[in-house]
Specification:
Layout: H1 13-31, E1 43-48, H2 54-65, E2 69-74, H3 83-93, E3 96-100, H4 104-113, E4 119-123, H5 129-143, E5 151-155, H6 160-169, E6 175-179, H7 188-197, E7 202-205, E8 216-219, H8 231-237, H9 245-248, E9 256-259, H10 271-274, H11 281-299
Parallel strand pairs: 1-2, 1-3, 3-4, 5-6, 5-8, 6-7, 8-9
Helix pairs in contact: 1-5, 1-11, 2-11, 3-4, 5-11, 6-7
């Protein structure tokens, strides 16, 4: 197992499945009242440039449930001191660093200069691997562990969540389709590399027919944090890409709906869909706790 958790592509298929199985066992254990002491006497530093509900609460709760101590602080990496100097300090004090940042390179640099403490990517502008672990855990609970022939349609821009799904598809056989307006595709070089490694198909289209037959339909907010100045334009450009009942009707009749949250109800998704029996958004959110605990307990040993 590698030292850090920066991207899913740092791990093999077997290692990803081991993390997911561990997350399942931790979830079952905590629900059964099991005492979990995997982080007893350990300290986790949480560096957050972006505000958060799910990431902060689930990491802090997870560290507490496993007997450790979490230190949260809001910061702007690289301003008061270099990222490398911050990493060298933290590496001498704490047992793990969780970073939720704007720039992906900041998390990479933290990991480069933390020799002892593993670094966990809590979110960057490029990817969001913890989210996908939680998503996959929820899908496995509803659809089983075999993703062969499974199709996920991601309706939205080629953002950090889509990139992480593409990374998952580079390790676990499945089909992935990005459905987005022209101009909002994922980075072409990244997509080419993902397609070269993927066992299934990775497709990008501006045609809503891309949702046809999907076993899961995923969406995200149209303007992420840091894109507020683009919100009005994105609202116009994405208007016909709303996930509503008619769009879901194109998918498999038993298709599940996913969203990483927070959701802008009435924009990228309707109440009818997000509150429907097909929606597993709160299962995803719950599993952020258990998937991240598996990552922390695996790395901090």
């Amino acid at each position: 197992m590698v030292k850090d958790f920066i991207a899913l592509t740092d791990y093999s298929r077997e290692e990803i499945e081991q993390l997911l199985d561990f997350a399942d066992s931790l979830k079952a254990g905590i629900k059964a009242g099991e005492t979990q002491r995997h982080l007893a006497g350990k300290t986790v530093a949480m560096l957050f440039e972006k505000p958060s509900l799910r990431t902060r609460v689930t990491f802090e709760t997870g560290v507490f449930q496993m007997g450790g101590h979490a230190i949260y602080f809001q910061t702007s990496l690289g301003e008061r001191e270099t990222v490398a100097d911050m990493a060298r300090n933290l590496d001498r004090w704490v047992d793990c660093v969780v970073a939720r940042t704007f720039k992906h390179e900041h998390v990479v640099e933290l990991a480069e200069y933390c020799d002892h403490a593993p670094v966990v990517n809590g979110l960057t502008d490029f990817n969001h691997p913890c989210q996908i672990l939680a998503d996959v855990q929820a899908l496995r609970e509803h659809r089983g562990k075999d993703f062969t022939g499974f199709k996920l349609a991601f309706v939205g821009d080629g953002n950090n969540v889509f990139n992480s799904w593409a990374n998952f598809a580079r390790r676990v056989p499945m089909d992935l389709t990005l459905v987005c307006p022209p101009g909002y595709e994922a980075d072409s070089e990244f997509v080419a590399q993902a397609r070269a490694e993927a066992a299934g198909k990775i497709e990008i289209t501006d045609d809503l027919e891309g949702v046809r037959g999907a076993h899961a339909v995923y969406t995200d907010v149209w303007a992420s944090m840091g894109q507020e100045q683009e919100a009005a334009r994105r609202q116009r450009d994405f208007g016909r890409y709303q996930v509503n009942a008619s769009l879901m009707a194109l998918a498999d009749k038993d298709a599940l709906f996913l969203h990483c949250l927070p959701a802008h109800r009435g924009s990228e998704v309707t109440d009818e869909v997000i509150d429907s029996p097909q929606s597993i958004v709160f299962d995803q959110a719950e599993n952020r706790l258990h998937a991240q605990k598996a990552v922390l307990a695996t790395l901090v040993r």
